[in-house]
Design brief:
heterodimer; A: alpha/beta; FAD/NAD(P)-binding domain; 2 domains; 4-stranded parallel sheet; globular; B: mainly alpha; Cytochrome Bc1 Complex, Chain D, domain 2
């Protein structure tokens, strides 16, 4: 407990590194440290921006393939409600104008011995500290028949962008009366309540645009985030348009066939016009290259500094981490990024990182006007993150519509705030 | 519009730089905005979670700008103690100790009254 009240030295140390006090740079290991961040999502962009503020003299390079980031939160509203995909896109010009170097490139490999990152263009970036925020990759082949090629026919839409548009267009092109199937993987995966928000939005689309059609959700699990709240909403709004089958009802999908538009469970093969396969996931590939992922496919981290358990001087944040009970959410990635940025600033000033309290809030839409939420509070004191007892939880069941509407409005505000914080 | 958490951390940084000669007992004295004690340091890190939702613009989620430390602390303790409260803030506040709440309030308040 006392450790958290010892942060005076953090600020003092950082102040020294900032040159704000006329003291010799005692304890400052690097006059101009090189910080490289890979991945420009909510994690990487947020880390870059806070580090820019904390360490004005540091060289900060953000490696990101795309000129614009397409955000996943609210992308289910693109699919079901026709929200413009442009509303999900954010550029890095704000980061660049603050003095962060953007390398619009693909990180290919990490040399942990020489502490360099090699890029597809042939450039090699040296680092004192590397922050990986690689997000998720799909485990191609984990469901038999589901490959990158198959995803062009049976979209996952679990990375926002062209896949999101494809799923929207397939729903629009589908004749009324046809069936939509969504498959949901076992945990852990990006955005635990995301599939169920998406199911709600697709069911709303069917109810209003294709009233003779139906969505069947085939789930590898028997329970899920905000389950009773979603099921309450589905019973009220989509009794004829949404059917959810858990693992116990043969919901686990083992095989898909893009040629015949079929999905196979243990006992049955179903055909549908639109099939949204949300496949099992793992950390983004660069984490494997850097040697920071383990046999689970995810990255073990020190919960205070988010430094890799497997490689020193390399930190991992966001969806790629093993940070449960913190979910793989945009909120988590943003906050982990900020906590990691403070830790990196301290470490580069020869100061130990300090524990703190972390939190998460996720909103999910159930109708165009109503949302539900889940919140959690976590301590990073100890060997892993853990939930603080008595805190957190979900929106009340059976609540008045005004409460659902209020949370929908909060969701909009949250999206504006967090995208502004990450991308400027 | 600069990020609130950055303002907080930078605010803490610059103020501490002014008070760098202060003694370790500073945190025991409740100082108003300008003379931040080192309590603000841990508060500033706690406040990193706030800025994920609270921006300078009030809307469906209120801006924290302009609130005094006392007002923030009172409201957060209220959220924490209202056993039947179901809002996101009720659910979050229950995860913080009274000391956490005092610190995060101190970190958020001084900049809230900045122009």
């Amino acid at each position: 407990m006392t450790s958290r009240f010892n942060r005076r030295t953090l600020i003092k140390g950082a102040a020294i590194s900032l040159g704000l006090v006329g003291l010799p740079s005692v304890g400052l290991s690097q006059a101009k440290p090189n910080i490289v961040i890979v991945g420009g999502g909510f994690g990487g962009a947020s880390a870059a921006r806070l580090l820019r503020q904390l360490m004005p003299s540091a060289s900060i390079t953000l490696v990101e393939e795309n000129a614009k980031y397409t955000a996943c939160p609210f992308s289910n509203l693109v699919i079901g409600l026709g929200r413009p995909l442009d509303a999900q896109a954010f550029s890095y010009t704000g980061l660049e104008s603050s003095g962060i170097t953007l390398a619009y490139d693909r990180a290919l490999d990490v040399d942990v011995t020489n502490k360099t990152v090699s890029l597809a263009s042939g450039v090699t970036l040296p680092f004192d500290r590397l922050i990986l925020s690689p997000g998720v990759d799909m485990r191609w082949g984990a469901i038999e028949g589901y490959s990158q090629d198959a995803a062009e026919l049976l979209p996952h839409a679990w990375k926002a962008g062209p896949q999101t548009r494809l799923l929207r267009e397939q729903l629009q092109a589908m004749p009324d009366g046809d069936t939509v199937i969504m498959t949901v993987p076992p945990a852990p995966y990006r955005c635990p309540p995301g599939p169920y928000e998406r199911a709600s939005m697709i069911a709303h689309y069917l109810k209003t645009q294709k009233p003779n059609s139906k969505l069947i959700v085939l789930d590898a699990k028997d329970s899920f985030s905000k389950m009773t709240l979603f099921q309450e909403a589905w019973a009220e709004h989509y009794p004829d348009h949404l059917e959810w089958r858990g693992a116990i009802d043969d919901g686990r999908v083992s095989r898909v066939d893009a040629a015949t538009n079929t999905v196979s469970t243990d006992f049955e093969t179903l055909q549908a016009t639109v099939i949204n396969v949300i496949p099992p996931q793992k950390t983004g590939e660069i984490a494997d290259r850097a040697g920071v992922s383990d046999a689970t496919g995810w990255c073990p981290i020190d919960p205070i500094s988010f430094e890799s358990r497997l490689q020193s001087d390399i930190h991992v944040i966001g969806d790629a981490t093993i940070a449960a009970p913190m979910p793989k959410s945009a909120f988590s990635a943003n906050l982990q990024a900020k906590v990691c940025a403070v830790a990196v600033a301290r470490l580069l000033s020869d100061l130990p990182p300090q524990p703190t309290v972390l939190a998460n809030t996720c909103y999910s839409y159930t109708t165009p006007d109503e949302a539900i939420s889940i919140a959690g509070v976590y301590t990073n004191e100890g060997s892993s993150l853990s939930s603080i007892a008595g805190a957190g939880g979900v929106s009340p069941l059976g609540a008045d519509k005004s409460i659902r509407a209020a949370e929908a409005a909060q969701a909009v505000h949250w999206f504006e705030t967090i995208t502004s914080e990450a991308f400027g | 519009m600069p990020d609130r958490n950055l303002q907080i951390l930078m605010g803490a940084l610059s103020v501490i730089s002014l008070a760098a000669c202060g003694s370790a007992s500073d945190r025991d004295t409740q100082q108003p905005a300008f003379s931040l004690s080192d309590a603000t340091d841990s508060g500033a890190q706690l406040a990193l979670a706030c800025s994920g939702c609270h921006s300078a613009a009030s809307g469906a989620i209120v801006s924290l700008n302009g609130y005094t430390r006392e007002a923030l602390e009172t409201r957060l303790l209220q959220y924490k103690s209202e056993a039947d409260g179901t809002t996101v803030m009720h659910r979050l506040a229950r995860g913080y100790s009274d000391d956490d709440i005092a610190e995060v309030s101190a970190a958020l308040a001084p900049l809230g009254s900045a122009p």
